[in-house]
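Predict structure. Chain length: 595.
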Amino acid sequence: MKKISIVFIALLALLHTACKDALDLYPETDLSDISMWKNAGDFEKGVNKFYEWLPKIMDNNDASVAENTRYGIADRDKLADIVIDNGSLNNISNSTYNIPATDPYYEGYYKRLRAINYVFKNAEGYAKPEEIKQYLAEAKFFRAYYSFLFFADFGPGTIVKNVLETDAPELSSARNTRDEFADFIIADLESAIADLPTQATLPAAQNGRISKGTAQSMLARVALFEGTWQKYHLTNVTRANTLLDKAIANSEAVMNDASYQLFYDARMGAESYRWMFVLESSLQTNPYKLTKAVNKEYIFRNRFDENIRVSNQNVVHTMPGAGVTASRKMQEMYLTAEGKIAVPDYKTSLNSFLKNRDPRLADNHRAVLDLYWEYALGRGDWAGGKVDSLRASVRSYDGVGFFNKKFASERLFTNATLDGMDVPIIRLAEIYLTYAEAKFEKNGSVTNAELDLSINKLRTRVQMPALTNATIPAGSDMKTEIRRERTVELWLEGHRYNDLRRWKTAETEMSQDLDGLPFMGGSAYLRTASVFVPKDNKTVTYTNTYTTNKGVVNAAGFALREAGSGRKFSAKHYLKPIPSKQIEINPNLKQNEGW
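Prediction complete.
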């Protein structure tokens, strides 16, 4: 195991809310107390707070406290059209929400902004500015990052660069324009890039902090989002192209940084993609005993450690169970192993839909009656051999969606909340996808050489044939295939909702049936099937209880979670509404169009 740096251990310990109060993330006195900002270490400690706000895999939309006003990355995908939550319907996903009086995500942004701006206020007049420029750059990164999360959902807000007093004009001013707010985010990121160390030069004692590559990656994300928004919503080609150029340039900078590499181990082959997401610091989570120290793909992550800072959430239990499942649309986005479009085989057996498909389908999903090692028992034989567990929920499954495998660990957990898996907020795969998409959106085409520099690296990892201009699947086009690759590669990493809105396709995609398992005539899911479970030394049997319990099947023959008639995404839903109390407080705020 690679040793974790002492300072990073200290940072993790500060973040470890299970054993230490969250107030440890604050400086020893209040952020507003200028007397405590005496040296670079004080600024480092002050900035540490902003790391604690980063998303987990699941946050369950818990906005009960200001520091938790966030969506987990998997929660974020529930807002769109590819995740079925068998537990509850999502009013954002089905567009049934109304204007709230208050919104913790809206108000939480300005609370965070105030805390971040205190760093800049306390830096005024600091005698040795060179000592703290890295921490000021990190603060600018976080101001940009949290501003972008706000911007993506609500559109532009009021730009606030200072700690506001009660008579500050910003408190009664109108919202800034979309261009002004986007440029504010971009300017912070460009300033941060100038003063941040590269990953390669980041001192070992500061491993895990924001680097130049992190800020370049974030700028690529922001520029692609706003560039495509300008193109498809506002038809402003000039501004769109300027932003797409920024997305390309910053993607190239990260792609050329040898600090980052796609995670791949020849022994794992195509399953490298699968095992990457469950790596931990010291415990065995894969057959080859690789730890997260070898993973150079994660550029921006919320870092956890099974010994120091655990996630405190039930990821390893919920993810492979019925809590997070995939829609039929998600399953059918995966191409065949030959790179063609074809409906999966739902009729031969319960797991035939996984056969002869893009290996990421089997990496991300599994069939009913698939045997696997359960977290409560741990994997019995890492070198291979027979699995020893089958979840009870699989034996009599009456849910709607296809089971998820991503983030599902197979190691022994005495408590399912004690995992130390990092949360991939930005990884190199996204940068390759951003580069290819920005090239296409800017030029109307992408060359085979550009595809080889980007998307085809992802395909090579999972042993899929290369995408070229000559091998676009019949019935498709290059834009569709670039978007398909993005959706498949980034499943459950929180991108789909933003992608559908920036592409201006949400009116179509999110107004369709949200359906899952196949129950049409001849479906294997209508037949009884059995499997022998070595652990119990007995055979267990699957019988369909969905239709016998009068679960709804749509006209296409799939288990229906929500009918399209109840999923009416309209033009106004591209942005969430401003809370009514905010407009009561400041009448100069203008509500988003349509609300």
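Summary: The beta strands are 83-84, 298-302, 325-326, 365-366, 402-404, 423-427, 514-518, 529-533, 538-542, 558-562.
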